[in-house]
Amino acid sequence: MATHGGTKTDVTASTWAVALIAFGIFDVVLTTAAVGTGVAAEAHPLIREGIQRFGLVVLPVWKGILIASFYALYRATPRPYDVGVPLGLAIVGVAVGIWNVAVVVFAIV
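Given the sequence above, the corresponding C-alpha cells read:
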C-alpha cells in the first residue's frame, strides 16, 4: 500500500505497479529482444541513435529516466489528480506493449 501525503492509496499503488510492469519492464524486455535479434528496429530516432552508439543498455537507462521524471510529476501533482500520472503510464505501457507484440508477430510470420 502506497502513501502519498499521508493518505493510503491502494488504487494508486496498483496503478503504479501496472505502469512499471507494462511501461518499464515489459517494454524494455520486448524491445531489447526484438532489436537485439534484428526482428524489429527502435522507432524513436534519439533512442535508435543511442542504441547504435552505446548498445541496448540505452533502453533501461532511458526508461529509468522517464519513470523517475513521471514519478517527480506525480509527487508534484495535487490529490486526487495525481493518480492520472501512473494511469497514463499504465495505459501507454499496455498500448505500446500490444503494438510491440503485433510488430514482432507480424515480423516473424
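The two ends are 43 Å apart (CA to CA). Try to locate this feature in the C-alpha cell string yourself.
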